[in-house]
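Let us practice reading a record.
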Amino acid sequence: MGNARSAAEIWVVLHGYGQLARFFIRPFVGLETGRFIAAPEALSRFYTDEAHTRVGATWMTREDREHEMADQVEYLDHLVQRLLAECGKPVPVNVLGFSQGVATACRWAVRGKTTFAKAVLWSGTMPPELKPDELKRAFGKTELTLVHGTSDAVTKEDVLLRNQQTMRESALKQRTIQFAGGHQLDRITLVRVMGTEF
């Protein structure tokens, strides 16, 4: 979404487990002014119900884990190069990961070639295998925001507390935003985290 040529920044928004990009991007409608927003879809699709009528996607499973992570990092780096080419000029690249997309965003930042101006980690778990020095190198110059719904039954508060602890151990500055809601994107919070305040 958005006009590449007039965009002042790129946002890559990563969906959660079992979601599809075309639905995940809907809450971002109306936020594309001055932005180029891309919602890539995870590479592995599957049926999410027994009747095989609903389809979702996942960024990875434990099967062939290392190769799946390498594939997703290469895929996302390649996407950013294409987005920057469409913009025709260097602009800041930001990432928002929701749920499973949080782990994907973190692994991408550590293993990939893309540097992020802003990273929003929304209702998901940071990967336990990433070391503090790796996270510091990846996010040392990034504006980091953790977002969590106060009634999130999927990603409970202990996950937020662990993420905050990981940030402290990695000597990373971050802000935490909590909103009254569950495991979902909250429009008011979305407008806030995509803004310029920090």
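A brief commentary: The mean pLDDT is 93.
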